[in-house]
Write a structure and sequence with these properties.
Blueprint (H helix, E strand, L loop, with lengths): L2 H29 L1 H7 L7 H12 L5 H7 L16 H8 L3 H7 L8 E4 L3 H10 L1 H4 L4 E4 L6 H10 L4 E4 L1 H9 L10 E4 L18
Parallel strand pairs: 1-3, 1-4, 2-3
Organism: Leptocoma aspasia
Protein name: CMS1 protein
InterPro entries: Cms1 (IPR032704), P-loop_NTPase (IPR027417)
Length: about 210
């Protein structure tokens, strides 16, 4: 008679603990961004996406007039990849006269096309995937991993490059040191939808 209620008493907290563990696991699952991404297809970027980010970033320390000057008209933007294109076929569509632009470009310390993405690894992937587009042109890697900035500065100063592919941080550093001039740049491509191992897009990274 003594053991019976004791056994009943012990079984209750075990059941309660099991239900608590399940509840915690359920709550953790809801917080994962991967679950959200699986249910939502990536959307092509639109001009408003970039404009909204600029406004959010500069909104607190810029005047109304300065914010107005930061706005880019829709005519500054080319159509985004509708996600049915490969990278090469997309570039061919937005830049049909690439061969002519490539032949006419002879300025050092500059590129005709600048591609910005979130990492060195992604930069290498994009360089490989644009083979069908780039043709007989020179591509320079503009990221920090395994490449010193002095080396990139020397390359830009001595040679002619048509396409630059790299990360915002290294590109910014090169521009600030007058090693990269953007006067000859006709196209700037933002790798908008790609996500890193932490499932962040380039625009989700605070430093960017």
């Amino acid at each position: 008679c003594v053991l019976q209620p004791t056994e009943c008493f012990l079984s209750q907290p075990e059941e309660k603990q099991e239900s608590t563990v399940k509840a915690k696991a359920k709550r953790r699952k809801k917080k994962k961004i991967s679950d959200v991404l699986q249910k939502s297809a990536p959307k092509p970027g639109v001009p408003a996406d970039l404009q909204n980010l600029l406004t959010q970033h500069f909104g607190e320390n810029r005047s109304v007039i300065e914010l107005e000057e930061l706005k880019l008209s829709d005519s500054c933007f080319l159509p985004a990849n509708d996600l049915t294109h490969s990278f090469s076929s997309y570039l061919k569509e937005i830049c049909p006269k690439w061969a002519k632009l490539r032949r006419s470009h002879g300025e050092k310390k500059s590129v005709v096309m600048l591609v910005l993405c979130s990492s060195a690894l992604r930069s290498l992937q994009l360089i490989k995937s644009m083979t069908a587009f780039k043709g007989d042109c020179r591509v320079i890697k503009l990221f920090a991993k395994h490449i010193k900035i002095k080396e990139q500065m020397n390359m830009l100063e001595k040679g002619v490059f048509h396409i630059g592919v790299g990360t915002p941080g290294r590109v910014k550093a090169l521009v600030e040191q007058d090693a990269l001039c953007l006067n000859s740049t006709k196209y700037m491509i933002l790798d908008w939808n790609w996500r890193d191992q932490k499932l962040r897009r380039m625009m989700d990274i605070p430093e960017v």
